[in-house]
């Protein structure tokens, strides 16, 4: 089911948190609301599920205006960060509770709970209580409970924040599998760009109550509209360098890079270099001293301090040992340089 926010406005007292925001989530799509703390992503989610009242604009589910429909009458399933399971109930009772509230027949509830438990792969845990479950198992129960009513929209509010790294990786793929198998329209709220990029069809990157870019994960990574977007996406993060654009890009102290084709700006600008686009495989051009090496198994993160004092990071496969203090002269994939004006706009 398509979900649409039109001119969505939300105020808390005299403070306007979100002002006239438009967003369309396509039917069967998984959309990420991504951004730093305080950007308005959870506020948007709570308005969609009915916890927050909208101060302006409209909310439509499948073309139907549900702006003033009470939360309990919206066809929405919500999974919260803290799972919010009932501790005195078994897994079976937790999953079936929304159907019990709807006064469904016991046989129907049992059937629906069994199907949902099989979908999220917890059929063997139905007689346990939440205290007897791991974090990942509790998350699966919360997901099953949210989806057992067959809602039109699934809302996920930082669902992986309380899991350890291994479980987080596992649940990323599991939530995406379940979403694709059911074809449900879903919105994921997260501050973790890896989650957003790996789980979602599109990302709405938010800042100060506004969507600053809406795109596919690959499109946003390769073609960010602003320096903020480029800096928010990417792990390890992008390196930003101040340069003077002329016939070449001058970094000072005799350091220069070839001018990227199509760059029309001149004077003082900022360039962004992704760590995978800097290293010995690209020839030479940037001389400096290795200031930090972080082994990560099959690859290494290497920070190089240039003669002008700026630093640029590389991500390299493990090879010849690299040491702090070692002098290097590495190149850049010039065609992958991102250029920005001093105020952060893409050039």
Q: Class of the largest domain, according to the CATH hierarchy?
A: Alpha Beta
Largest sheet: 6 strands, mixed
State the end-to-end distance. 37 Å
Number of domains: 2
What features would you highlight for this structure?
347 residues, alpha+beta, Rossmann fold, OB fold (Dihydrolipoamide Acetyltransferase, E2P), 2 domains, 6-stranded mixed sheet, 5-stranded antiparallel sheet, 8 helices, 20 strands, 24% helix
Q: Can you offer a commentary on this structure?
A:
By secondary structure, the chain is an alpha+beta fold. It folds into two domains: 3-231, P-loop containing nucleotide triphosphate hydrolases (Rossmann fold), CATH 3.40.50; 236-340, Nucleic acid-binding proteins (OB fold (Dihydrolipoamide Acetyltransferase, E2P)), CATH 2.40.50. Helix content is 24%, strand content 35%. The chain contains eight helices and 20 strands. The strands form four sheets. A six-stranded mixed beta sheet has the order 6-7-8-3-9-10, with helices on both faces. A hairpin with a 2-residue loop joins strand 11 and strand 12 (248-252). Helix 2 (91-101) packs across helix 3 (106-119), helix 3 (106-119) packs across helix 4 and helix 4 (135-147) packs parallel to helix 5. It is elongated, with a radius of gyration of 24 Å. The two termini are 37 Å apart. The mean pLDDT is 94.
List the helices and strands and how they pair.
Elements: E1 3-12, E2 15-25, E3 30-34, H1 41-49, E4 56-61, E5 64-65, E6 76-79, H2 91-101, H3 106-119, H4 135-147, E7 153-157, H5 165-182, E8 185-190, H6 193-199, E9 202-207, E10 210-215, H7 217-222, H8 227-232, E11 239-245, E12 248-252, E13 255-258, E14 267-273, E15 278-279, E16 286-295, E17 299-306, E18 311-317, E19 327-332, E20 338-340
Parallel strand pairs: 3-8, 3-9, 6-7, 7-8
Antiparallel strand pairs: 1-2, 1-4, 4-5, 9-10, 11-12, 11-14, 12-13, 14-20, 15-19, 16-17, 16-19, 17-18
């Amino acid at each position: 089911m398509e979900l649409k926010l039109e001119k969505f406005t939300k105020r808390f007292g005299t403070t306007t948190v979100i002002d006239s925001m438009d967003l369309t989530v396509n039917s069967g799509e998984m959309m990420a609301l991504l951004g730093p703390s305080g950007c308005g992503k959870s506020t948007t989610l709570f308005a969609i599920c009915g916890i927050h009242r909208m101060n302006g604009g409209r909310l439509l589910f499948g073309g139907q205006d549900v702006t003033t429909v009470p939360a309990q009458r919206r066809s929405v399933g919500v999974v919260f960060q803290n799972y919010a399971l009932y501790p005195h109930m078994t897994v079976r009772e937790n999953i079936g509770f929304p159907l019990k509230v709807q006064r469904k027949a016991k046989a129907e509830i049992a059937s629906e709970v069994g199907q949902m438990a099989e979908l999220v792969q917890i059929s063997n845990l139905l007689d346990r209580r939440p205290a007897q479950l791991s974090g990942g198992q509790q998350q699966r129960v919360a997901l099953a409970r949210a989806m057992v009513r067959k809602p039109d929209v699934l809302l996920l509010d930082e669902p992986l924040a309380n899991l350890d790294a291994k479980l987080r990786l596992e649940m990323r793929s599991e939530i995406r599998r379940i979403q694709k198998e059911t074809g449900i329209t879903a919105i994921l709220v997260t501050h973790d760009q890896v989650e957003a990029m790996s789980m979602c069809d599109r990302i709405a990157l938010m800042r100060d109550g506004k969507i600053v870019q809406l795109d596919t994960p690959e499109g946003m990574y390769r073609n960010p509209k602003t320096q903020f977007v480029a800096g928010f996406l990417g792990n390890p993060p992008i390196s930003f360098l101040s340069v003077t654009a002329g016939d070449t890009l001058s970094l000072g102290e005799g350091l220069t890079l070839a001018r990227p084709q199509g760059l029309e700006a001149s004077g003082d600008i900022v360039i962004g270099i992704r760590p995978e686009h800097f290293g010995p495989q690209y020839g030479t051009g940037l001389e400096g001293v290795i200031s930090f090496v972080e082994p990560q198994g099959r690859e290494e993160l290497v920070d190089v301090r240039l003669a002008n004092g700026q630093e640029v990071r590389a991500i390299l496969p493990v090879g010849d040992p690299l040491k702090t203090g070692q002098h290097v002269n590495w190149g850049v994939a010039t065609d992958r340089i991102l250029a920005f004006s001093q105020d952060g706009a893409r050039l």
